[in-house]
Specification:
Structural class: alpha+beta
Number of helices: 4
Oligomer: single chain
Strand content: 35-45%
Shape: elongated
Helix content: 25-40%
Number of domains: 2
Distance between the termini: 68 Å
């Protein structure tokens, strides 16, 4: 504190020493507050990670996205429907969009097994052979756009209504929307549930899993063709394929 030597007045020296003492203690307090705040944020992040630890994602892979992009840029000769799959037919090969099991869900509160379903896109290096149950959806129609239909499945703890009856609050929601807060959710799974195809003649084919079903049949009579964006937006996110 040599710079204080120029002051001869003791009261002045005491004043400046008091300021130095205050600044020293303020630095300790500031450092302590920052450290405590960092520690709180760290604990908060750990808590947030724990809350999201039961969420899984089953989305189209890069290879599958590449298949979809090829279909969008090179319209197939025909599009077929076969209950558990849609077929995109080309001259010497074809692609399929099929329903697959994403995950078996055994909830902590129950012994009953539940299933989360997803869709997969596969390239088949063989000429497509029409089956007896094959249904033609489109022929020589140009595709203008493909969208991914993504959904968030949640599995909630069942509520006992009486001795022999339980009520399930499980369901699905648009991944951009928040989960219900009035039920006890034990598992969350985000899946790519299918695709939508817009044709140049304005037709829209909705080729997706409806209500986490094990095949496409429940979608057949309700949503397979037409514009249902407003009705389906509460459950599905529509993502344009770039």
């Amino acid at each position: 504190m040599a710079w204080l030597g120029i002051y001869q007045n003791a009261e002045v020296n005491i004043f400046f020493l008091s300021i130095a003492f205050f600044l020293s203690n303020f630095s300790v307090y500031l450092f302590s507050s920052v450290s405590e705040n960092r520690h709180w944020r760290k604990r908060q992040n750990v808590s947030r990670h724990f809350l999201n630890s039961d969420m899984e994602e089953y989305l189209f892979s890069d290879e599958e996205l590449s298949h979809l992009k090829f279909i969008g840029e090179n319209s197939p000769i025909r599009i077929w429907y076969e209950y558990i799959q849609y077929v995109f037919e080309y001259k010497d090969f074809h692609f399929i969009l099929e329903v697959k099991l994403a995950e078996k869900v055994c909830q902590q509160s129950e012994t009953q097994l539940h299933f989360a379903m997803k869709t997969e896109v596969k390239f088949i290096e063989e000429k497509f052979v029409v089956q007896n149950g094959s249904e033609l959806l489109s022929e020589n129609e140009k595709i203008s756009e493909i969208e991914i239909y993504r959904t968030k499945l949640y599995f909630a703890k069942h509520r006992k209504i009486n001795e022999n009856y339980y009520l399930s609050d499980s369901g699905q929601i648009n991944p951009k929307k928040g989960l219900p807060t009035n039920i006890e959710i034990e598992k969350v799974i985000i899946v790519d549930a299918g695709i939508g195809i817009k044709l140049e003649n304005k037709r829209i084919l909705n080729l997706f899993i409806n209500d986490n079903d094990e095949d496409f049949t429940s979608n057949d009579s309700k949503y397979r063709e037409g514009n249902f964006y407003e009705e389906l937006s509460s459950k599905y996110q529509f993502i344009a394929l770039n």
